[in-house]
Amino acid sequence: KNEVEQSPQNLTAQEGEFITINCSYSVGISALHWLQQHPGGGIVSLFMLSSGKKKHGRLIATINIQEKHSSLHITASHPRDSAVYICAVRLKGADGLTFGKGTHLIIQP
Amino acid sequence: GAVVSQHPSWVICKSGTSVKIECRSLDFQATTMFWYRQFPKQSLMLMATSNEGSKATYEQGVEKDKFLINHASLTLSTLTVTSAHPEDSSFYICSANKRDLGTDTQYFGPGTRLTVL
């Protein structure tokens, strides 16, 4: 079983829709990252969370440490949001990240 | 935000040759850098942790003699894939750790796509 599980694996939505991507993990962590990977492969770090909620523009990330669960929300989605969104955790005592398999998001105009 | 560069962005080489990939933190010093690998349609996997001035720490299953890591300065880590084979074809991504006010944040490079013929 993967230590980091994401859902859904694939998501297609219409422009303007509210998007939610979920991430669950099974071990103790010191931080959780949400990353965005575009078709060319480059990765952009969207959020790093250890508790609570963060907001940046139309993106919101939340984490519930007790439930070992995090969500990434996109409000007023736009075709340029189409990308793979990856949840990654830093395990307690580790430096590197452990990644989920990613959610492939397509926003149709 | 902080910037991490990688060079080259893509490379095609013949089987048996060695390929060096550079990872630089452009506007901050990074005592720790990480090397990841991503095969098509798979998630990224940590290969090794590169520490400035000391030996890299490799993850289980990653051959340290095949993937040579040198972190010679606070802004540069290199990954050399020695005697590359087609199964080494992958997308290699580095990240650099920036410590700011007691918080560590990882910044990712744009990646290097390696194709071994």
Describe the structure.
The complex is a heterodimer of chains A (109) and B (117). In chain A, strands 2, 4, 5, 9, 10 and 11 form a 6-stranded mixed β-sheet that branches. Chain A has a 5-stranded antiparallel β-sheet with strand order 1-3-8-7-6, with no helix packed on it. Chain A is mostly beta strands. Chain A has strands at residues 4-7, 10-14, 19-25, 29-37, 43-49, 52-56, 59-64, 69-74, 83-91, 98-99, 103-108. The radius of gyration of chain A is 13 Å and the shape is globular. Chain B has 117 residues and is mostly beta strands. Chain B has no helices and 11 strands. Chain B has strands at 4-7, 10-13, 19-25, 32-38, 45-51, 57-58, 67-73, 76-81, 90-100, 103-108, 112-116. In chain B, the strands form 2 sheets. In chain B, strands 2, 4, 5, 6, 9, 10 and 11 form a 7-stranded mixed β-sheet that branches. A 4-stranded antiparallel β-sheet of chain B has the order 1-3-8-7, with no helix packed on it. Chain B is globular and about 45 Å long. The mean pLDDT of chain B is 91. Chains A and B meet through strand 4, strand 5 and strand 10 of A and strand 4, strand 5, strand 9 and strand 10 of B.
